[in-house]
Amino acid sequence: MLGLAVxxxxxxxxxxxxEGQLAKIRAxxxxxxxxxxxxxxxxxxxxxxxxxxDSSSSDELESLSTNRNVLAALVEAALGAIxxxxxxxxxxxxxxxxxxxxxDYALTTYVDxxxxxxxxxxxxxxxxxxxVVEVEGPPHDRRFTCAAVIxxxxxxxxxxxxxxxxxxxxxxxxxxxxLDE
Length: 181
Description:
There is one protein chain. The protein is α+β, with helices and mostly antiparallel strands. It has two domains: 2-108, Ribonuclease iii, N-terminal Endonuclease Domain, Chain A (Orthogonal Bundle), CATH 1.10.1520; 113-180, Double Stranded RNA Binding Domain. Helix content is 64%, strand content 14%. The protein has helices spanning 2-13, 19-29, 32-41, 44-51, 58-64, 68-86, 88-98, 100-108, 113-123, 163-180; strands spanning 128-136, 143-150, 153-160. A three-stranded antiparallel sheet has the order 1-2-3. Helix 3 (32-41) crosses helix 6. It starts with a helix and ends with a helix.
């Protein structure tokens, strides 16, 4: 439902954009990362703490209330509940309002380095793979380091709070080096 609402909005607002560009924008807007940003903006972590106040493991609940995956899941669950109660046309404006900043960000700022690297490598008949090099921190606060490997050689290294973020940073470095050649 989130994907449908965003896809419809993008198609109606930007009919001149090629399908591939609209697909990239939509993918970013409905991503777990974007849902977590919206969850933070809606203060869903605080709502989780409020409703779980009677819980015996408040430390765990505190950790969950700031976890990206949990916030994203809360957004998706809330949208699903509203949809089931009121239907698509009723929830669509709320989705578009909540995700408007994410659409603007995707239109003006967001770059998917993994896709851009992959497209550049395809033009050169090359491919990339990603390897996790290091994982640090406790399960609720991990830090990943990944390598972008092209033709068996490490072309970029990146770190992040998730594997995807680390891969994006590795792809950014690899793409920069590739284009500097």
